[in-house]
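Model it.
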Amino acid sequence: MEVDLEGIIQCIKQEDENGVQAHLQEFNKEYAQCFFFDAEERDRRKQRRLEEFRKNKVRDFADSDSDCDEYDQENRSLILRQNFAIVLMRFIRSGVKSRVLRVSLRTLRILSRDKKVLGPLVTDSALLTLAKLAGLTTRDESEDSSDPDSEFYDNIIASLAEAKLLQRRTDEDEGDATEDNEECAPLDEDAKSDISLANSDMDNISWFGSHRTSINELHRASGHHKMLERGRRDRRESKIEVEEEEEGDSGDEAQIKEAMKVLCNVVYNSTWAQERFSALKLMCGLVECLSTSVSCSSPSSVQFYELRLLFLITALRPELRTQLQQEGGVSFLTAALESCLEVQWKEQYECVLSPAAPPISLEASQRIIEILKILFNITYSTHRQEPSEEDAALYRHLVAILRLCLIRKCLIMDDTDELQGHTVNLLTALPLQCLDVLLMVPLEPGSHQCQGVNMDCVHSLMSFMERRLELGDKVKEKLTPILNLLTESCRAHRETRHYIRKQILPPLRDASQRPEEGTTVKSRLIRLMTHLDTDLKYCAADFIFVLCKENVSRFVKYTGYGNAAGLLATRGLLGGQGTHCTDGQYSSDSDSETEEYRQVKDRINPVTGRVETEQPDPMEGMTEEEKNEEAKRLIMLFNKLSRDSIIEPMGVDSQGKLVPMPGLKDISLAEEARRESDNDGEAEDEELD
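Modeled.
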């Protein structure tokens, strides 16, 4: 199926709104779920074909004028798409009927996925037009040029016809080549697999889950484009939104939503649009719209896209991030979060948490997640800052609401996990002293507790960490925030550390396995201590170290010296000097040993952390002289490896840090010279004899 772009432009030229609507609906239906190859993808496909041809010795590949023709055709197609976007923008600005306007905005949304076609959409005039349609401003700015005349349309139509004619010839040539040579088949298979999740359309992705691929060949046959995989948000899309889409999304709300989607795509894909969004001061209008929608008892579906746009601009523009924070963004977004969760307060920093409360709805969970991401953008630098009394009260109010986000469930488990993940991210960004609100809740029947302190929130964080440990993908991104949060919490609150230590590091009883072996949380964390990623390795080791009250001997006891050496070397504790100097709030409880551990303690290998089977003495039966000779031989071998820069002998200084051992090298050099001298003397004696 080919979309008649000539027909669309002819209808726009003739001001036939019914014809424009029909043609644009056809375009939207054909390409709503499609994305297209760009030039880089075309080159990669061509390279794969070349390698396939050479591998199977089908034919020799030679450059030809067809490459230039394809490149010219591609550029021509790009220009036509840009002109098509220009025509649509001017058509929208001319004041068309509401229903035709919505269809036109959907077409622009599809075109806005293509970074190369964004030129007509990032001018001040276009941005103000879209912002006005989205309700962000009442300003309007007409372009200097007047409406396009007939010659403008005729030139575009002629270019379209020429491009389609060239494309037909190209397709015919490709068809003949396929009939003559069956080895062309791999191209179609590549076309099916070249693009995955390659859409920046806000209707089809979760945030940052896309490649910024551009539309390349608008007139290619259906075999040369791929259906988009729908994102998580769309797979769990509410029936209300689906029904609205099927009914055409009547009303101003549908128009605002479409304009918001176009703005989201444009801002996400264009640095220039981000700069102009800031310069045109559209942030104020966006915040005003959100303030109005937050105060409503039943927020519209537009609010999600308003929040998505606010998230994008705060993530991409630092000055807008600062502006929103300085203008009370934390307070305003906290109120929005409170509204989405329908919070009821029991005490100043205690929310009512009813066991009979229904799960968080799909629409509310979407909005909550966007709010959490925006709050993280504007507060991520406050973690190490000392907040003022007013800010501390505001952050504690926010943390009390975040406690609900950690404990309450959503309708879908994946939504619950995503909600808790963003909550953890935000908690790591807030001042540490304000997180005590998580524990300042009275005990209730069935609550997890430690020393009279409510541990329900800590238990939820531990369960979240365990689920993340079981995942095999994106380990660093998923685990680092929760490990950091639990580590800092254990340092600051002794009850938290005591509760978590009992769950993760119970008293040792079985020393027959290495500490990293097994499926327990402890063994999984210890395995991470030797992970290839330095940050993840340090986070896991630091967490275990804090659970051991930063005591070196206890840390080695639970993990084995081999696993602990990395952190100890980093902190200068390889000498094993007791407890590391820290400000942690640790209790004075002792690490009592079990009877089972005490019985095998003397037989535990401190390096591996387990009881090793007894091995025969390698020097048994050797005389003292033979032992000395073996030791000297080993020293010479180490010296050779050191001279060849394969290894460098190291030792531990008085501060517990690893340092080079030049003395060992000097001794080994002198010994080697002496042995060579002795050997030479023996050889001379043999000659004399």
